[in-house]
């Protein structure tokens, strides 16, 4: 006696296996589609996500700089333009990610990295000025930006 399945049992196993595969893949697709759907809840959290995200406001570095030597002027101008670009990019990211993340998302994902980039750029400005004259101090406090609604 042979241990192999009869021909009709092989077909039944193949059909049941195929149907199970289709059902499982449908469940996976539906689960992944629903995974990104936010929970339905009323109240302040939902109102906060629907509101305008605001704009990013940073201190003016150019106004706080001492006299810039002519030899450092081009480098300082490039870095000041870079500071403006950094703010524009962060503001754009703020608007494209509105409503995402938790309560600390803006601080951790947008304002924190912006502060680090600005600190580095401000330090380069101070170094460029310091090559010719006294390096300005106290500019570190200008790196932090805030969110205004």
Task: Explain how this protein is built.
By secondary structure, this protein is mostly helical. Helix content is 58%, strand content 4%. It has two domains: 1-37; 44-148. It has four helices and two strands. The protein has a two-stranded antiparallel sheet with strand order 1-2. α3 (73-96) runs antiparallel to α4.
List keywords for this structure.
149 residues; mainly alpha; 4 helices
Q: Note the beta-strand portion.
A: under 5%
How many helices? The count is 4
Number of strands: 2
Radius of gyration: 29 Å
Average of the residue pLDDT scores: 82
Number of domains: 2
Low-confidence stretches: 39-49
Structural class: mainly alpha
Q: Overall 3D geometry?
A: elongated
Which strand order does the major sheet show? 1-2
Q: What's the main sheet like?
A: 2 strands, antiparallel
Q: What fraction, in percent, of the residue positions are helical?
A: 55-70%
Q: Could you spell the SSE succession in H and E letters?
A: HHEHHE
User: Whole-Å distance between the termini?
Assistant: 82 Å
Question: What is the strand and helix layout of this fold?
Answer:
Blueprint: H1 7-35, H2 44-50, E1 55-57, H3 73-96, H4 105-130, E2 146-148
Antiparallel strand pairs: 1-2
Helix pairs in contact: 3-4
Summarize the structure in short.
The protein is mainly alpha-helical. Helix content is 58%, strand content 4%.
